[in-house]
Amino acid sequence: MKKSFKVKGIDCANCAAKLEDNLNKMPGVEKATVSFMTEKLTLTAADDKFDEVLEAAKALTKKLEPDWEIVTK
Amino acid sequence: MNPYLKLAIALVIYVAVGHKILRKAFRNIKNGQVFDENFLMVVATFGALAMGEYLEAISVLVLYRIGEYFQDKAVDKSRQSIAALMDIRPDYANIEDESGELQQVDPDDLEVGSVITIKPGERVPVDGVVLEGDSRLDTAALTGESLPRHVAEGDEIYSGTINLNGLLKVRVTKPCDESTATRILELVEESTENKGKAEQFITRFARYYTPVVCGLAVLLAVVPGLATGQWATWVHRALIFLVVSCPCALVISVPLSFFAGIGGASSKGILMKGGNYLEALAKADTVVFDKTGTLTKGVFSVVAVHPERMTEEELLDLAAAAESFSDHPISRSLEEEYQARTGKTADKARVGQFENFAGEGIIAAVDGRQVACGNARLMTRAGAQHKDCEVQGTIVHVAVDGVYEGHIVIADVVKDDAKQAIGSLQALGVTRTVMLTGDKKEIAQDVAKALGLSEWHAELMPQDKVSRVKDLIASKQKDRTVAFAGDGINDAPVLALADVGIAMGSMGSAAAVEAADIVLMNDKPSDVALAVRIARKTMRIIYENISFSIGIKVLVLILAALGYANMWLAIFADVGVCMLAILNAMRALRIE
Predict the structure, then answer these.
(1) A49 in contact with chain B, both atoms CB, cutoff 8 A
(2) Is residue B202, in this structure, part of any structural domain at all?
C-alpha cells in the first residue's frame, strides 16, 4: 500500500533528505520519499502492517526533530 | 573592562541569539547525527569564542539566523507561487435541495449522477456532462490555452476549468478524486518522487561534502599548527571551513528548480511525471512522432476540389446532395465542407431514388439527373472516363448522366502547428525528427515533405513501430535520448519503450495519462518543442546552481586556507549563495 501524508515543519532540503534516509532504514518500510517542495511523505509498506509502520514512522519523525510532524487525518 | 565580565556578557548574548541552534545541535548529537549544520555552527562559533573573537562569534550567529530567515521566506514564497500556479482545486459545488434552493457542498461529497449548478465565474468542481445551458469555459488552468472553449448541452466538461458567462446544469460523471483537476494535481505533486539524476547527485554529494570539509578543517588546524606553532591563525582558518561546510544551500536549489520547471510546464498544459523525465527530455536529440492523431488531426476533410467544367461549389453541391443519405465518414466530410463554404445544409428533398454500391460509391437521382459519386470502379459502372489526381488522399469522382464532371480529394489534414513544431525542434538541435505510420507510402511522403521531417517510415504494423524505435534507441549518441510522441491509446508499448514517452493527452483520457511520462493536455505537436525548451532551460538553471554553489564554496575554502577569508565571507558562501540559487531556481517557473 502506498499513501501520502503532509509533513509539517520540514524547513530545509537537507532535513527532508535526512528524514527520508532514516525512514528508509526502518523495518517494514518498503519505500519512503520525502519531498521538501510539497512537504509530503509518500510511504509504501505491506497492507497488513501499514498502520503499525506508520505509527513507528511518526514516532521516529518526532524523535529526530520535535518540530516535524506527520499529519494523518 | 574585566575580561571575565566581557566573556560573561558575550556568552549571554551568544546564548540569547543562538539558543535555538544550540538546542538542535545537542539533540542531533544525541540522535547520532554529528555532521549537522547546527552542530557545525556551534563548533565554529565556540571556537571563535574560545579564541576571544567574541564579536565575530556573535555576528556569525546573527547573520546565520538572518540568512536562515530569508531563506525560509524565499522557500515559502517559491512553494506558494508554484502552488498558486496549480491552484485548480475547486472549493465547493452548488447542488439543489428539495425546496429548489442552491446549497454549497464540498466537491468530495458529490456522487456520480447527481446534478450540480455552475454559476458564471465559478470553477467546475468535478468532471461532468452539460444537461442545460450554454457558456464559455476558461480552460487555461488545465491547458494553458487562452482562448475560451464553447460548451453546450451534451458536452463533457472538466474540473479545474472556469465557467465564464452562462449558467450551466451539469450531471456529475466522475467523483471528485477521479476528476481531471485532482488527477493533474496528484500527478504533478507525485513528480517529486521521481528524482532526477542531478538531484540524486547533489544529495549524495552533500552526504560526503560535509564530513570531507570537516576533516580538512581538522587537518588545516593541526598540521600547519604543529609545523609553525601559530595555532591561533590556523584554528581560526579551520573554523571558517566549518561554516562553509554546511550543505543546506547546496541541496535546496536543485529540487526547487526541478519543481519550478515542472510547475511552469504544467501551467502550459504540459504535465511531467518526474524530474528524471524532464532531465531525459532535455537530452533528446531524436523525436519520433506517430502520424495519425499526433501530427495530423485524425479526421478526414476535403483538401481539393477539381471540377471539369462547373465551379467548385457546384461540384460540391452535387456530391454533398448525392451523399446526403449516407453516414459514411467520407459523406460527412463532403457535407461539412459544403456547409463551411455555402452556409447551407445539403437539401435531401432534391434527392430521388439512390443506390449504394458497397466499396464503390453512390448513384443517386439529384434534381432529376443521375449523379454517380465514388471511386474509379463506380465511374466505369457509370460509363464515365475519370482522371487521376496528383493530390494524395481518397479521391471521390463525380459523373452526371454518364459524363465525368471532376473529383474531390479527401484526406487527413496536418495540425496547424505541426510544421512549426518540427521547425522549432530542429532549431533546438533535435537533429532527427522521425514519423512512423501505418499509412500508405505516398501519403506518408506527402506529410513528411510538407512538415520537413528528417525521416519517415510508412506501412508499419504496430510491432514494426516498436522495432523501429528500438533501432533508433540503439543508434542514438551517448548521453542523448529518444522521445516518442503518440496519441497514447494504441501506442502504449512504444510510449513505454522510448526514453521519454509523450502522450497527446486529449483532456481527460485516463489511458494516455497512465502510459506516458509526459502528457500534453492540448494535443498540440508544438508543445513537444515547448516541453523540450522548458526542460533544457530548467536543466541549465540546475547546472548553473550546482556549479555556482560548489564553485563559490570551494573558492572560499581556498581563500580561507590561504588566510584571505573571514567569517563574514564564509556566511555569504553559505546562506548568501543559497539565496541567489533560490532566486535563480525560480526562473524555471517563468515560461515566455
Answers:
(1) no
(2) no
Provide the shortest C-alpha distance from residue B203 to chain A (in Å): 7
Q: Are strands B168-172 and A40-45 parallel, antiparallel or unpaired?
A: unpaired
* Residues A22-36 as b or e (16 or more Cβ within 10 Å = b): bbeeeeebeebbbbb
pTM above 0.90, yes or no: no
Q: B262 lies in a domain?
A: no
Q: Are B418 and B296 in contact (CB under 8 A)?
A: yes
Q: Out of B127, B290, B317, B491, pick the active-site residue.
A: B290
Last residue of a domain, one of B394, B412, B430: B412
* CB atoms inside a 10 Å sphere around CB B476: 17
Q: Find, in chain A, the residue whose alpha carbon is nearest to that of B191.
A: A35
Q: Is residue B328 part of a domain?
A: yes
Say if residue A47 is exposed, middle or buried (CB neighbours under 10 Å; 0-12, 13-18, 19+).
exposed
Cell of B591: 515560461
CA atoms within 13 A on the CB side of A68: 26
Of A17, A63, A66, the CB nearest to B203: A17
The total number of structural domains in chain B stands at 2
Q: What is the CATH number of the domain that holds B145?
A: 2.70.150.10
Which of the residues A38, A44, A62 would you substitute to probe the B interface, choosing the one with the greatest number of B C-beta atoms within 10 Å?
A38
Domains in chain A: ranges and CATH: 2-64 (3.30.70.100)
d(CA B44, CA B383): 101
Q: Residue B42 falls within a domain, yes or no?
A: no
Using a CB-CB distance cutoff of 8 angstroms, which residues of chain B are in contact with residue A13?
248, 251-252, 254-256
Helices (runs of H) and strands (runs of E) counted in chain B: 20, 22
Closest by Cβ to A42, choosing from B33, B193, B255:
B193
Domain assignment of residue B400, given as a range: 299-412
> Going by C-beta distance under 8 Å and a sequence separation of 6 or more, which residues neighbour residue A6?
A39, A40, A41, A70, A71
Do A38 and B252 make contact, defined as CB atoms within 8 angstroms? no
Q: What is the ipTM of this complex?
A: 0.73
- In angstroms, rounded to a whole number, what is the distance separating the alpha carbons of residues B404 and B385? 6
- Give me the phi and psi of B486, to 5 degrees please: -140, 180
Q: Each residue of B380-437: pLDDT tens digit?
A: 888 888 888 887 778 889 998 888 888 998 888 888 899 999 999 999 999 999 999 8
- Reported as a single tens digit per residue, the pLDDT across A23-50 is 999 888 998 888 877 788 888 888 888 8
* Closest chain A C-alpha to B491 CA, distance in angstroms: 28
Which helix (H) or strand (E) segment is B284 a member of? strand B284-290
**CATH number of the domain within which B354 lies:** 3.40.1110.10
Q: Residue B366 and residue B277: Cα distance in Å, rounded? A: 59
Using a CB-CB cut-off of 8 Å, the residues of chain B touching A40 are 189, 192
